[in-house]
Design brief:
This is RNase adapter RapZ. This protein is an alpha/beta fold. Helices cover about 40% and strands about 20% of the residues. The chain has ten helices and nine strands.
């Protein structure tokens, strides 16, 4: 049985993630009390593998029942059950906005501010986040983008290769919270200062040529590709299933997009991993520095 435990901050998108898993053929249970995991695993064992993929949502809504989550994980480890923890999170600002838009009450802010509940929940879930197999920061994702990420991670159960996500971003909007490696490419020539390139992005050939034809860029790509060729086999050996490489420039529209696309193309031939390229900030204000 392939078991995915979905957890994370309230308002971070667990419902949408579970819907995506359900569409992928997972048997899903929402708000599962952790102390029922042992009986749940026994139930599926008795059905002799008729259901192969299961997703269980366990979060702070469980109240006192949720406090037994680490005992449940200990049980799974002791009985050699194959499971992953998918942890969803978002920034305080985004979570407050989402709760206000939906007019829903935060589970931990019954008599206080929404922000107080979010801060307390993040504190309580800190240790569980540390045990997560995969972390998705949904601060800048819409419903469709979140579903796309879940499908990338769990859509092909036959392909167990590590997923490497190359994510371009703008430092002015903050470093992606789920980044494992962060590379700052603000030292490269900036197309923003070329009037005929400013309104284009790293998807456009003229911007790509401007960035990639620089001698500094060519040297950087050679050295960075060599470093990744060294690192990736060790991440695979460690058992890491998802690696996020964040590549940032100032605004996330020109240099970082160009480099993410280029490095993604170069890594695509690696047999030990699957490549996914994302551009977090490419749709931001085109008039800002990139």
């Amino acid at each position: 049985m392939q078991l995915v435990i979905v957890t994370g901050l309230s308002g971070a998108g667990k419902t949408q993630a579970v819907r995506a898993l359900e569409d992928l053929g997972y048997f899903c249970v929402d708000n599962m009390p952790p102390n029922l995991i042992s009986r749940f695993a026994e139930l599926f064992r008795e059905n002799e593998g008729e259901i192969q993929k299961v997703a269980l949502v366990m979060d702070i809504r469980g109240g006192k029942f949720f406090e037994s989550v680490f005992e449940a994980l200990t049980f799974l480890d002791a009985h050699n059950h194959n499971y992953e923890i998918l942890f969803l999170e978002a920034s305080e600002e985004v979570l407050v906005k989402r709760f206000k838009e939906t007019r829903r009450r935060h589970p931990l802010s019954t008599q206080g501010r929404i922000l107080d509940g979010i801060i307390e929940e993040r504190k309580r879930l800190q240790d569980l986040r540390g045990r997560a197999s995969k972390v998705i920061d949904t601060s800048d994702l819409n419903v469709h983008q979140l579903k796309e990420q879940v499908v990338d991670l769990y859509g092909d159960s036959k392909d167990n290769r590590m997923v490497v996500t190359l994510m371009s971003f703008g430092f002015k909007y903050g470093i992606p919270l789920d980044a494992d490696l962060v590379m700052d490419v603000r030292f490269l020539p900036n197309p923003h200062y070329e009037p005929h390139l400013r309104n284009f992005t790293g998807h456009d050939q003229k911007v790509q040529e401007y960035v990639l034809e620089s001698p500094v860029t060519r040297i950087f790509l050679e050295k960075f590709e060599g470093m990744l060729a060294f690192l990736l086999p060790y991440y695979v050996q460690e058992g890491k299933s998802h690696l996020v490489i964040a590549i940032g420039c100032t605004g996330g529209r020109h240099r970082s997009v160009t480099l993410a696309n280029e490095i993604g193309g170069r890594l695509d031939c690696k047999e030990e991993c699957r490549i996914s390229v994302k551009h977090r900030d490419i749709m931001r204000n085109s008039g800002e520095q990139a």
